[in-house]
Amino acid sequence: LTPQKFGNQAVLQTDMPLDEMEKMMVNKAIEKHKGNISRAASELGLTRAALYRRIEKFGL
Prior knowledge:
Arc Repressor Mutant, subunit A
């Protein structure tokens, strides 16, 4: 990952597909919060229902 400046925000460039990056972020949040879906969803800025949809989508 390479940070780039875009306006006043840092933007990361990667060759990783967006779905793979999202799967990795979801998985890490769930692991960090020891399976607590509410806390993982909150960290990701998602509702619990949205996080459950992603868990199903990615087969986690």
